Amino acid sequence: MSAMRLIAVLLLVTVSVVLLQPAPAEAIDATAVLLIVGVGVAVVIILVVVIIANVREGQRGTAAEPPLRLYAEVQGN
Questions:
Q1: Sign of the CA dihedral running 22, 23, 29, 31
Q2: Tens of pLDDT, residues 19-55
Q3: Looking at the whole model, is its pTM more than 0.90?
């Protein structure tokens, strides 16, 4: 049993070393870099717009107040 266990461990180590080797480095095209940077900038812009909108809504106090119609229905009017 110990010989089979040793073979299994060696096989697992060999397979894991082969799978975990880093891939050969490849050059990245300039268009790919520009695309990645553009997507990053777009995500940052969207986050900034959403954060600014939430801050302004919170300053007005409209975020915590329920709509008037819903409030009137809850009161029974």
A1: negative
A2: 887 777 788 888 988 999 999 999 999 988 888 888 8
A3: no
